[in-house]
Amino acid sequence: MNIAQEYIQGLKKAYHDNEIGEEWDAFAAVMHGADKIDLEALQKLYPDIPESLIQLLNIVDGTYWREYDGEKYGIYFLGSDIEEYPYYLLSAREMTDKEDADWLKDYINRNYAEEVQVDEKIIDDADQMCWLHFSDCMNNGGTSQLFIDFSPAPEGRKGQIVRYLHDPDELVVIAESFDAYLQMLMEDEYNFIQNEDWI
After folding, report:
1. How many domains is the chain partitioned into structurally?
2. What is the pTM of this model?
3. Has residue 88 been placed in a domain?
4. Beta bridge partner(s), residue 137
């Protein structure tokens, strides 16, 4: 079993443990992996994309109001270091089509250094940025987004996971790799899944 399979198995258990297993089961019955063409386009754009993310996308091609079997599903699939706060997984096509993070350039270049916290592991030259946007938070990404950073500062590590948070704005490295990120969510026992009427 690879880490993606292990992650999804644990996620299913978390939904059932929180008494919302019916929602997960309905989604799991129709979900499918990304089209080969979409995956190839994503890998061409990001040749260093981690294998564990490809493995996830081979099982489920997004949960961000993604259409499966003629119906749209919005399923919380990921979390972050913000306890109990859920995120969607974007599809391979959404990851490829997402606009460049130009709106982050002033933050990356430290133009608002006094107002915005930016992790020292993040490069300070926006023109050199190579980030893969793979996840939006529960309010359509307006409060938080997650990225894989392929262009870190010398203090960082290629492939590290960056979390953007709005109000107060900050960019923080929350894991040194995508595998480590998934492992963090598993060790936190999928605490972003709650027994509440938010699905």
Report:
1. 1
2. 0.95
3. yes
4. 87
